[in-house]
Amino acid sequence: MAQGVVKSARQIAVVGGTLIDGTGRDPVRDATVLIDGERIAAVGTGVAVPKGAQVIDAAGRTILPGIIDCHVHGTYRARDMRQHLLNAPTYNVLRSTAVLKETLACGVTTARDMGGADAGFREAIAEGYIDGPRLLISIVMISQTGGHGDAWVPAGLRVQKRAWLPSPVADGVDEVRRLVRHVLMAGADFIKICATGGITSVTDSWDEPQFTLEEIKVAVAEAAMRHKGVAVHAEGVEGIRTALEANIHSLEHGWFIDEQCADKMLKTGTWWVPTLALVPLSLEHRKANTAWDKQQLANEASKELEIYERMQKQIPLWKEAVKKGVKVAFGTDQSHRLLVGENLVEMRFMVEWLGMTPMQALVSATGSAAECIGRSDVGVLEAGRYADVLVVDGDPLSNIRILEERDRLKLVMKAGRAFTNTL
Known about the structure:
Elements: E1 11-19, E2 28-36, E3 39-44, E4 54-57, E5 62-65, E6 67-72, H1 81-86, H2 89-105, E7 108-113, H3 119-126, E8 134-137, E9 141-142, E10 152-153, E11 157-158, H4 172-185, E12 191-194, H5 213-225, E13 230-234, H6 237-245, E14 250-253, H7 259-268, E15 271-273, H8 278-288, H9 290-294, H10 300-324, E16 327-328, H11 346-354, H12 358-364, H13 367-373, E17 389-392, E18 409-414, E19 417-421
Parallel strand pairs: 1-4, 1-5, 6-7, 7-8, 9-12, 12-13, 13-14, 14-15, 15-16
Antiparallel strand pairs: 1-2, 2-3, 5-17, 10-11, 17-18, 18-19
Helix pairs in contact: 4-5, 6-7, 8-10, 11-12
């Protein structure tokens, strides 16, 4: 059955393809998506194409919603620290436009930026001055002193990674409260806070817990007063437990959850954004690009190797958590460091390591991801939502890896505007 009513003049019809709408419902053959301006006007097999509408023929191909990446860092800085210190902040801002453009080009039409982009990036994209996915922003990732977001180095100074941002460092309940309020004032759509160390930070181990329960709770409470959620970076289990006890909105990475953590997430409805591809692909990249490997400032290689080896033992637990119904949303941790324009490789790991079907992986990146980020206007191909539409040559339900092949991506449309169209 067709949905919706067409009202205005600027109309586009994507016709003849097999529709995967982002809800998990069965694919619909020979479907039409009718677009009126920025929004979808009608979807189905019985949609009449109005006279004068632009027709895009998707016959023999798959029509998908635009992908939502719930964990990106869309701004640029040089990986090489010498070069970073020589680059002006404005250079980094301008180079960021290429990162954002490439992210959109691979099919990501909406993204949560987990630290780096301020309101200027979000608004410049929204107003059409630069190309990129529509952004939801955290501005900074809040860190304790010596934590994952603290850029202090043993030389005795903090190296500004993105000079347009406020300091992300806060200690104690009162400082966390003040910083959360400041970031929300500056236009953050959500709060990002680090509950463990990380791979790229110099002064911590990846699994050490950071921030007390009271500090994370105050961030959650302050965000809730502005009707915002809190996303928490947490890799090791102790920090994960603390974060879950604080009633966070989403767990980022969360690789070393245990059964108790999974049960807690089921009870509270916490989202899991697992970012699985990052570590294995980083290890591969080190072998192929020794210069990139040597540019690490932290001891990334040994951290990643340890994490990867432990990940393999976690796979049965992850699969069981997904079977039980832990809510999973697609996210990559794409950054200047890795995965720019390769975001859709994450789905392969969701299928192989989480035991998802290709349809479940696609829904995690569309309808479920829209729910995770609190946006009912994206993620599903249905009347009234933004016309974020992909057309792919092939069937991702038969082989999810075709989404990694850029030449198969024939149409990338965001809000009714075709960014890529080779049909």
